Amino acid sequence: MSIRTELKRAYKNSSEDTTNLSLILLHNSLRETMIKKILVAIDGSEASKHALDFAVDLAEQTSAEIQLLTVVPPVLLPSLGLYKLKSKAIKECTDEMETIFWEILAKAQSEVEKRSPKLKISTKLKTGEPHKQIVQIAKLGKFDLIVMGSRGLGSRFTALGSVSSRVIDQASCPVAVTR
Description:
Elements: H1 3-12, H2 18-30, E1 37-41, H3 46-62, E2 65-72, H4 79-84, H5 87-115, E3 121-127, H6 130-140, E4 145-149, H7 162-170, E5 175-178
Parallel strand pairs: 1-2, 1-4, 2-3, 4-5
Helix pairs in contact: 1-2, 6-7
């Protein structure tokens, strides 16, 4: 779906959904700002796939470069589990999650390269709290825009996920949230 179509749909439905309002605000800010670097946070969820599509459309129209970022969250166990599992088991779980997230990145990069071979794209995998890593990478990399899905794999809230809500609150650049 093109950016123009997405923005028209967002405007039409803006009174019903605050996520769409973000797209309208982004559209208005595009008039004043040149976007050259887009950070796309992905986790393999449907919402992150929509975010990637949106970011690619935008990058094609603005000749921006894209960096795909995925963050492996820490393995959290109930306190009782800490006594039963050794650190080796936690490390193995983390390693397996890293492998899965690398596969998500590779697949997304391959899809973008097939769709838009001229687009400059890079990938990055980090570990830690997803919202903190996204905000930090965006700031350190001097990104003009963060694009992410409204609800990822760990969605716990109805309107916006906890990660996207925190990124919106803490980011030093505009954030486009798609669903």
